[in-house]
Design a protein that fits this description.
Length: about 70
């Protein structure tokens, strides 16, 4: 059967949904704050897990491309 790359569309959808809730004018500051904290906890978890992954050839290019995107903003 072989390797099947996981579909990240569910994760993207969940993050987009929480971003919408954070920015919603219908939510009070407490609700938006809790949502933003959840997003921050997810970000920290991803950074921690990502730092444990092996390094692959060409990764530097991904990081440079991201840095260029940030600097253009």
């Amino acid at each position: 059967m072989g390797f099947q790359k996981p579909d990240l569309s569910t994760a993207y959808h969940a993050v987009r949904h929480i971003m919408t809730e954070i920015g919603s004018p219908y939510n009070d500051g407490f609700t938006s704050s809790y949502c933003k904290r959840d997003l921050y906890v997810l970000k920290c978890w991803l950074e921690d897990e990502y730092s444990r992954l092996p390094t692959f050839v060409g990764e530097e290019q991904w990081e440079q491309e991201r840095l260029v995107e940030i600097l253009k903003k």
